[in-house]
Amino acid sequence: MISSCDSDLLDLESLTEPTDATFFSNEEELNLALTGVYNSLVWLGGYTLPVQVNMDNGATDIGLVRGGFTSFDELGAGSHSANSGGFLSTYTHMYRGIGRANSLINNLDRAAEVVPTDRLNQIKYEAIVLRAYYYHYLIFLFGDVPYTEDLIGNPLEALLPRVNKEEIIDTLLADLQEAAQNLPATPSEKNRVFRDVALTLHSRIALYAGRYREAVTSSQAVISGGNLTLHADYEELFTPQGEGSAEAIMAMPFMDGFGPLPQFPTAQGSRNYGAFSVVVPTQSMIDSYEATDGLPIDESTVYDPKKPFDNRDPRLKASIITPQSEWGGIIFESHPDSLEVRNVDGTIRGRNNDSRVVIWPAAFCGYLWKKYTNVESQLINRGWSDTDFILMRYAEALLNYAEAKIELNEIDASVHEALNRVRARAYGVSVAEIESYPAVSSMDQSFLRTLIKRERKVEFANEGFRLFDIRRWNIAEKVMAVVLYGRILDEANAQFVPSIDEDGFVSYAGIESQYDRNTDARFPNAIRVFNNPRDYLLPIPQAEIDTYRANGATITQNPGGY
To answer: Cα–Cα distance between 96 and 90 in angstroms, integer?
Structure first.
């Protein structure tokens, strides 16, 4: 057989797999390649949760995890190293998306004769925005990283040097500006990049980089564009009923039957419905929600530690399942003395698996995340949810704008408007109903800096913003070097209130005995360690350093003794 068709061997091509020689030749193939670029938005870690949730709970002060969360739990416990596998996974995942984007962008001209120019441009700029999205994770996690817009012809060409992240930021911001000028004002279909995605990402990168003027310009363009609105019901936004909201600019999409699905109900839900509650909010997260008078709880006259969940910002109970609240037909109660769980009608349901006396790892801090924990899945003991995970939303553009203007000390009515729209929505009222929510009117820069830190912490809780915020505000060494506490155990006799400073740091110094502290050694993530300044950047994965070395090249490690 070989001898009979010997002359044709070099012409053989796969009939089932695309090849570089023939692909990118028509619109169908370009769309398939673009879908490949989008696929890297699905970024999953422990319990197949979005890695953003792994970061918030494993490596910041707002949550706690039981282990195995893409190495961000190691970061929180201070036990990570350059060999931590989750960081390598993050590094390679983002470069995979970047490589797909570069391949598509560099091969678009192959279809120029058969695909309209407008369509080619839209595909190009969608890929450019996605490439910037993947790069922004790399630079704000690792610092200086290799940067390329070219196709890699062979493995040795991939051994690129690290590029100063400020240079990369320059490029990303310029790319996003150009993309915003060329993308449609509204998405062509669900979960597709459009103008406001480019502008909001531009404002995020600029804000994280301290380039406040640029952040103002791009976020203001989103606000004035008029295409987006805040979802009326904050709690509903993160449920199946909130999918398709005009607030969600870009999302990590999920659909039953297509790929792995996040196990939010299993990881975050009540153990009385078969879940494991391995991802939970901390007491400092609870105490960060304002009282209804708009003041932090250590300044408020309406906060009472005997009734700690009364008179609080509605986002507390919208985001978190608190003791004695209803959840899926039961009364959630995490107190160690509560050995039986009750239905909402008061009847006893059975053994209370949310009490750690019944099951040792239950509700470690005494609370559960409500945000993204699908109650319908809980009711049928289904461990997964196909609710889309929001990556970018209109509230971010509003708060990016407010913070950038505050940092520039250009405080005016537009700053108050941006803040108050977010705060009013939390109370379910319009921004004009200033009697019904704690509206902001202060012109004091110092006061507003404190408020915006508190506002971002509660508005974006469990969405993946906190790690980047505490790093760029240079407060990570303060908020992370702590023991994580749980709920007040004896509310009837509670009298102490923690102190909260200008950075939103909640201190329990001197009043620790009022709060639960689960000392189980199986929760190393509960005792946080922060090595300053080393832990402001992730280490370059050792496997990457070894690969360079094996091929006669060098890539430097971040400082800190890895």
So the answer is: 10
